[in-house]
Known about the structure:
The protein is an all-alpha fold. The protein has one domain: 434 Repressor (Amino-terminal Domain), CATH 1.10.260. The chain contains six helices and no strands. It has helices spanning 7-19, 23-30, 34-41, 49-59, 63-78, 82-87. Helix 2 (23-30) crosses helix 3.
Amino acid sequence: MFNPPHPGETVRELCLEPLGLTVTDAAKGLGVSRKTLSSLLNARFGISPEMAIRLSKAFGGSPESWLIQQAQYDLWQVQDRKETIVKSVKVFKKAA
């Protein structure tokens, strides 16, 4: 897996910019506040299931594809702490 961009960067570069949309216009079209969209675009928020549905309707792609982008980004962000995380996890095994 490569270091994926934050999904907000994808929204900005592949959705808003090619259509010449301002943050204000895009937020209105998505039915969210300008602050909410700005937070997504600036990587302060991630894509929620609700936002995935909105993005899917407005720009295409399935809601699942938007959520997968978010999951890939989130997983990449914790990879460097993987060893620390798993040290505190107990392995459960099925009774024989």
